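Journal club prep — side note

Before the paper discussion, L.F. wants everyone to see what a predicted structure for a comparable chain looks like in token form. Sequence:
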Amino acid sequence: MTVALKESINTKPAHDWLRNIKVAFAPAIGSPVLDSVMAGLSNRLRLHGHQIQSEPDNSTDIIFTTASFGQPVGWRESLLFAGRRRFGLNRTPTIFTFIHVTPERLQQTIDYFETVLAKEPPDPADYAFSGLASEAYHTLVEQGRRGGPIMALERLLQAQSKSIRILLVVGGDQPMYAYLFDLVGAYPRIDADAPEFFYDDIALRIVTAVSTFEVTEHEVLSDVIARSAWDGLTAPRAMLDASHQLGKRAFFTEMVRVANLVYAPAISDAIADQYSEGCFATWEPKIDALVATITGSARPVDKTNITEDDLAVIVGVRPDGLGAVVRHVEGKRNDKPSSEAVEMKDMDGLLPTIVLGGEWGESASVQAPVARSKLHGHRGVGAYDSRFVEFAPLDAPYYHYPVSCATDAQARAIKAAFYRSEALRNPTDARQVVFTVLPGHGVVIVEKWAAGKAPFQVMWEYMDAGYLQVDNHVPQGLVEYVPNTRDPHRRVLNAGL
């Protein structure tokens, strides 16, 4: 059921596919600020038609709980790990943990991380926080150097609270603003100057997060690709080469291993043991399919040094949209494709195809998607040259109310953005690369077919030439590229929260 935000002062565009949800509050600790935030959020959720339950049950979508800033939560008390047992549920609802911090303590923590992150080599003793594993310093350093002190703080609080989704409420006696954290590392800031807007915005972000669904129920066809046919393909070798080339340019950030942050028994029952950042795929005309990287949640995958066992074959999308359609390869380890498999295949559905002939080594003309290679990473784009690269914006609601990875909503957002691309809709357009930015998440880059170039070669050559400037900063909200007055062809980033 679609939810309309009636009586709301929030004028930002929301999604038209939001649904009514059921929420329950199960605070572990109380404080005047957290109590007021939970009451304010409860009132706004109820006003907009959502159901507030006195106790969680098997129909509950979200449980809101609380934790103290800087204090570890035992895994037996964590609702992420023990919520099902505590409430007698057959599944774990989405858990949001509210944490309060004063502006002074927050600034002290940010300043501390800024200081220790600058040390080379890093000192593990600087990251010996209560409740964290001894190896946690490695992850905190990598994440902090990639995303800044706020990212290190985010991972610290997630590890200590044993919760992925956190609302960090900043204020003294009253909330001043809040950060909303998630698995990928988003940290949008919501100001509390106008209380009704504050709670409406939080409510909409939370409802957005649970109104979509994951698209990782992949279907495997019985038609196995023969080993001899696989060995004759060019895409698998090109994927391995691209892995090294993109690794040289530090495109992929390191895998986050949860066990390196915090220890909890049976951790994989609640979340994946690890997740790798980024995925990529290229088209193989001989089998009419995408050859793509596998999911990092299945097992550790170093995207800078993949092997053929780190590849999957995607031939379509399930009619119900719940996952991709996959073919296995004889004699090869066949793990599931990346969680972004649906978005990488489905974006071709509305775009034109082109004809490949002898110049591509084909004995006969074959049809192929206009988008040859696709790259998804948790990075940003700081600037691009509009003579060679096109920016394809998402629909407006996705910048105000982002969605998470591996979801139907993200796949549809990316498909719509690239469908509007002039360079992709017109194969003769001279621009060879198109990208879109996923706020709080990263970037998706698409490359067209270029004679004489290997898959992804145009991308990495554009990176080297400065036509596409990959950046550590991932915008958390609105994204706008404006002309650089020194170079009329270059666009520079102007990204708001």
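L.F.'s comment for the group: DSSP finds 14 helices and 24 strands in the chain. Keep this in mind when we get to the figures.
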